[in-house]
Amino acid sequence: MNQALEEAKKAALLGEVPIGAVLVYEGEIIARAHNLRETTQNATTHAELMVIQEACKKLGSWRLEQTTLYVTLEPCPMCAGAILQSRVPRVVYGARDIKAGCVDSLYHLLNDARFNHDCDVTEGILAEECGQILTDFFRALRERKKAEKKARKMAESSEPQ
Ligand SMILES: [Zn+2]
């Protein structure tokens, strides 16, 4: 999870919402990624989807058996779907996402007997750090927006009448 957090920090440096993921196979990290939605302007470039794609390429299989996916934030419906489709047997995540999480918060997509794949889920690993990096990111974003607004107002009021 520390490695996933490192990925999340890389995202923050790019001005991306800081979410990171790594995928482990036979005790080794075979894929790592961070959210790149703003950079790519592509809604599917979530960290989890990218590690799944990279791992499939490396293992030469769409079935990611005997792997563990570590991600800093509870997966969204899209990523939970990809986890089911790629048969990842184990997911470990940090913080819950009460607004979009589909593993424990809004839905339990990874543990729904109606699907043909059941995933072993562990939550709350380094949850505080994983959540804090998001809180800090959004706070800084709000402050930057506020400062920009203030600067705009000052520029407007100093314009000659
Ligand atoms: Zn996602």
TrEMBL record:
Matching Pfam families: MafB19-deam
Hydrolase among keywords: yes
Enzyme Commission (EC) number: 3.5.4.33
Catalytic activity: adenosine(34) in tRNA + H2O + H(+) = inosine(34) in tRNA + NH4(+)
Single annotated GO MF: zinc ion binding
Keyword set, alphabetical order: Hydrolase, Metal-binding, tRNA processing, Zinc
Cofactor(s) recorded in Swiss-Prot or TrEMBL: Zn(2+)
Domain CMP/dCMP-type deaminase: 1-104
Cofactor: how bound: Binds 1 zinc ion per subunit.
Residues involved in Zn(2+) binding: 46, 76, 79
Enzymatic class: hydrolase
GO annotation terms (biological process): tRNA wobble adenosine to inosine editing
Active-site residues, as the UniProt record annotates them: 48 (proton donor)
SUPFAM superfamilies xref list: Cytidine deaminase-like
Protein purpose: Catalyzes the deamination of adenosine to inosine at the wobble position 34 of tRNA(Arg2).
HAMAP family: tRNA_aden_deaminase
Oligomeric form and interacting partners: Homodimer.
Protein known as: tRNA-specific adenosine deaminase
The species this protein was found in: Lysinibacillus mangiferihumi
Gene (name only): tadA
